[in-house]
Amino acid sequence: MSKHRILETRSDSAYHYPLLIRKLLANVAQQSSQEIVSAGQRFTYADLVERIHRLASLLASHGVEAGDTVAVMDWDSHRYLEAYFAIPMMGAVLQTVNVRLVPDVIGFTLRQSQAKVILYHDDFAPVVERLRGSLADLRHVIRLSDTPEPGTYEDLIAAASPDFAFEDFDENAIATTFHTTGTTGDPKQVFFSHRQMVLHALAAAVTFAGNPDGQSLRRSDVYMPMTPMFHVHAWGLPYVATMLGLKQVYPGRYQAETILSLKKTEGVTFSHGVPTLLRMIVDAAKVSGENLAPWTMLVGGSALSESLAEEALALGIDAFVGYGMSETGPILTVSRSKPGDPTAMRMRAGLPIPLVETRLEPEGRGELLARAPWLTQGYGTQAASDDLWAGGWLHTQDIAEIDADGGVRIVDRLKDVIKTGGEWVSSIEIENILTTHPAVTEAAVIGTPSATWGERPLAFVIAAQVLPPPTENQLKAFLAEQVAAGRISRYAMPDSIHFLAALPRTSVGKIDKKALRREIQNVPGLNALGG
């Protein structure tokens, strides 16, 4: 018999408060005087709440019920923000579709999710038309357009009822689903409940409120996401920004000119995205000569190089790292540094945010394992789910170290760490060193088979626009200096360095090392490596 004390005098009339996504909207329409800016339009928070009710009414008129899946294919917009709330608030499941996947893979994700309705931007009409006949569960499609053309989203929303009655239900009900494409084979479907989404939003809000100036998100900030809203809920931060009633700016497609214009005209102060987006903004700002201060930028998805962080800082962008993955909802850790700390402190994965537990297996340097109340409980198959949660901890597949203050440093992906001559070499470490050379803007390192050493590092670089361009021997001499200075191991010296016009990217902007491994088959002399 349990010895835990349970309150026995609770009133039968007491409200049992379920952690539902709609609770994030409590009071915001009354308290916030800020705007949501998107597609040339401006909305108050009262407008947003009303439009959420209207969208739910529209979907209900199309037969959407609790448990049904509604898929969204759009760029970052007010429409997507409305879908973030209206669909799960009515008890349905929001599917955020990765629109950068090839059509056949998009079709796979829609079929596995059993999407009943698709909201799609004009740009994706050809994909939807191609797939419609193969989607057995699909009943309706709604076209999204920035103008209120008859029969499109804005027109239908305007005609829908603003009085949809949202009801309470189990906080453990599924709120969202999407597919992670970080592994081989078909994408894996992950799920998140209302309770998980709310707890993630609360923990993230506390984290950024407590961070130092330049690494924080507060009610006075102007928020503009630059992580696609289809990708892990745009890192969950639209929920945080809405809960706090911040001014929000949605840029649509990511174009440097548009982003810099919105930054200037709307006073954007906080954004987040992958290093590729930061690089795009930095390069565009250098051309225009703009100073972008103040602008806080949370960077994740792949490693932030010290050189890029310093370039951004020189332009007024305080870039710092957050860490997570699709399966973790996503935020697990966020870096935090004090004035005077070296730039490298901003590049750590950072400190676990509230409610997150981490450990290494094995200790010292090993795979990072995590627990938090918002981690996905599994994939679409039992075997994959059991592997993900082996031993009661979520396995990240990332090799890490933990500093004395609890800060996490990601050494490499388990699949990308290079095992050479009995030593483990971090591809990230070599990449960071290479990008400190003034003639290199980006670098990627992979392991290639070696009969003698097991594996050897091979580097690909993007050269800066300098004359004369760097040579392989010059970069090797530079790396030799780093070895002599003790900054990297002699085992980390790449056997060869190759110049590319661009690095291949995944659908969410990460460097695609699987594509690079395929690339070596096309490089003379590299398809039969020995040594």
Molecular structure report:
The radius of gyration is 24 Å and the shape is globular. The chain is built from 15 helices and 24 strands. Mean pLDDT is 92; it is low at 525-531. The chain has a six-stranded mixed sheet. Strands 11-12-13-14-15 form a five-stranded mixed sheet, with helices on both faces. The protein folds into two domains: 21-411, Rossmann fold, CATH 3.40.50; 416-522, GMP Synthetase, Chain A, domain 3. It has helices at residues 28-31, 45-61, 78-89, 103-113, 125-131, 153-159, 194-210, 237-244, 256-266, 275-288, 306-314, 382-388, 427-434, 472-484, 513-519, and strands at 35-38, 41-44, 69-73, 93-96, 115-121, 140-144, 174-180, 188-193, 222-223, 247-250, 270-273, 295-299, 317-324, 331-334, 351-352, 357-361, 366-371, 394-402, 408-413, 418-420, 423-425, 440-450, 454-463, 496-499. Helices cover 29% and strands 24% of the residues.
What's a quick, concise take on this entry?
The protein is built from 15 helices and 24 strands. The chain is α/β, with parallel strands linked by helices.
